[in-house]
Amino acid sequence: MGENGEPPARGAADADHARLTAIVDDWAAAIVANDADRIGSFMADEWVIVSGSGIADREEFLAYVRSGDLTHSAMGAVTPPRVRVHGETALVTARITNTAHYGGRRFDADEWTTDVFVRRDGRWRCVLTHITPVAAPADQPPDA
Questions:
Q1: CB proximity list for 103: less than 8 A, separation 6 or greater
Q2: What dihedral do alpha carbons 99, 100, 106, 112 form, nearest 10°?
Q3: 36 contacts 110 by C-beta, under 8 angstroms
Q4: b (16+ CB within 10 A) / e for 34-66
Q5: Alpha helices (H) along 10-137
Q6: Mean pLDDT per 10-residue run, the chain (144 residues)?
Q7: pTM metric for this prediction
Q8: What single-letter DSSP state applies at residue 69?
Q9: Chain centre to alpha carbon of residue 4
Q10: Cα-flanking dihedrals φ and ψ of residue 39, to 5°?
């Protein structure tokens, strides 16, 4: 809310939307560059990622990148991000495709991602990433 209890000006909301969209794009570029320090700069210290394989914290994830065990060669948005700002918290959801390599094996993923950001000292940092595989079309068997 603004100083007098009214909602923030539309310009502020547009600026937050544009800034968060740029952050997500820059973060994806850092991931494809396999630059652990740059990837970490987008994450809050308490960041975690939740996926079908469980929960990994910031240091665990970055250690995989630093070791070279986890690399990404492609990452792109299938849909424009859906950005919702709620005060000092923002939710960014998009459909993303990526190509990762882990333990010498290639993995191509098509996923819905939701990132939860908090604004601290004027900077947006991600505190949680949740990924969900895109469901196979109804006319396609799940293992195709």
A1: 69
A2: -60
A3: no
A4: bebeebbebbbeebbbeeeeeebebeebbebbb
A5: 10-32, 36-40, 58-67
A6: 49 87 96 96 98 96 95 93 97 96 93 97 97 83 58
A7: 0.84
A8: S
A9: 34
A10: -60, -45
Q: Does residue 121 sit in helix, strand or coil?
A: coil
The token duo for 5 is: 């209890």
Q: Among all chains, which residue has been given the structure tokens 């809050």?
A: 44
CA distances from 80 to 46, 108, 129 (A): 27, 20, 17
Q: How far apart are CA 124 and CA 56, in angstroms?
A: 21
133, burial (CB in 10 Å: exposed 0-12, middle 13-18, buried 19+): exposed
Cβ 45 vs Cβ 61: under 8 Å? no
Note whether 36 and 43 are within 8 A (CB): no
Quickly tell me which residue has 């939710």 as its tokens. 91
